[in-house]
Automatic annotation (TrEMBL):
PANTHER family: DEAMINATED GLUTATHIONE AMIDASE (PTHR23088:SF27), NITRILASE-RELATED (PTHR23088). It comes from the Eukaryota. GO terms for cellular component: cytoplasm. This is Nitrilase-like protein. SUPFAM superfamilies: Carbon-nitrogen hydrolase. GO terms for molecular function: hydrolase activity, acting on carbon-nitrogen (but not peptide) bonds, in linear amides. The keyword Ion transport does not apply. Pfam families: CN_hydrolase. Residues 1-262 form the CN hydrolase domain. Keywords: Cytoplasm, Hydrolase.
């Protein structure tokens, strides 16, 4: 059975640093025999504010980070799913993009995050992703990989069941949610949402996550807890999260694995058919 790997990291505003973290995760996944490695949202960098997010952004063709990942994918013959930023055509904002890089190191699929995280939580995070990010306008048809048919979504997209159901309807067996969840929302919702998406789409959910503080001032920190959930809703791979006694994110630089059993996907779908009553609720059909 093919094995999927998830890698946990803590991106800063240094692409060089982030590439070196990613390279070590790639080497670990390759030597463990994984058929694909899934890395978090915004693996290329996490900047302290919107202006820095925009100014750090490079087209993939000249991004030190993306070029470096492509080279490693080719070297290890390992397909890699990785979240990065790309400039918009007018250069005023960025796209929150998820790349599928194949075993030759070529970018063969790209998805642009649909839903942007604009929140103001009392005594919690205030984040306005739309200040720097342009929202996507479409989902990609699921595509075949060595681990199964993959449908791409990103982070905050997790809160919306509709695109995952659409991907399932179009044949996905695996749905990805590379993320940089905040700590309070992660504590409250992360595992529940991932398991819900897996159960209701009867698919594997693969969610690699950022972990720990992204800058020295600790103005941005992520929840961690990268996870793979099977189509029955069972957590089959998991890394730790939040911070250790030295204020470092947990399990940074670690990978976790799960076998991806597409027969289990078919079995769960056969045993518990989810026949939608779209005659009754066509607006969600
Ligand atoms: O800023 C970047 O460069 C990378 N992007 C992110 O970290 C994004 C937008 S701020 N984070 C989320 O969507 C968290 C969602 C979340 O935490 C929730 O839904 O509860």
């Amino acid at each position: 059975m093919p094995v999927a790997a998830i890698g946990q990291l803590c991106s800063t505003s240094s692409m060089t640093h982030n590439l070196s973290q990613a390279r070590s995760l790639i080497a670990k996944a390759a030597s463990a025999g994984a058929s694909a490695l899934f890395l978090p949202e915004a693996s290329d960098y996490i900047a302290p504010n919107a202006a820095a997010t925009i100014s750090l952004c490079k087209p993939v063709e000249s991004s030190e980070f993306v070029l470096g990942i492509q080279k490693e994918a080719q070297k290890h013959k390992l397909p890699i799913n990785v979240g990065v930023h790309e400039p918009t055509s007018d250069g005023k904002k960025v796209k929150n993009t998820l790349l599928w890089i194949d075993a030759h190191g070529s970018i063969i699929h790209r998805y642009q995050k649909l839903h942007l995280f604009d929140v103001e939580i009392k005594d919690g995070p205030i984040l306005k992703e739309s200040n720097s990010v342009e929202k996507g306008t479409s989902i990609l048809d699921p595509f075949s990989t060595g681990v199964g048919k993959v449908g791409l979504l990103i982070c905050f997209d997790l809160r919306f069941p509709e695109p995952s159901l659409a991907l399932r309807h179009r044949g996905a067996q695996i749905i990805t949610y590379p993320s940089a969840f905040t700590v309070p929302t992660g504590k409250a919702h992360w595992e529940t949402l991932l398991r819900a998406r897996a159960i209701e789409t009867q698919s594997y959910v693969i969610a690699a996550a950022q972990s720990g503080p992204h800058n020295e001032e600790k103005t941005r920190r992520s929840y961690g807890h990268s996870m793979i959930v099977d189509p029955w809703g069972k957590v089959v791979a998991e890394l730790g999260g939040e911070e250790d006694e030295n204020g470092r994110g947990l399990d940074i630089g670690e990978i976790a694995f799960a076998e991806i059993d597409v027969d289990l996907v078919e079995k769960v779908r056969r045993e518990v058919p989810l026949l939608r009553r779209t005659d009754v609720y066509p607006d969600i059909g």
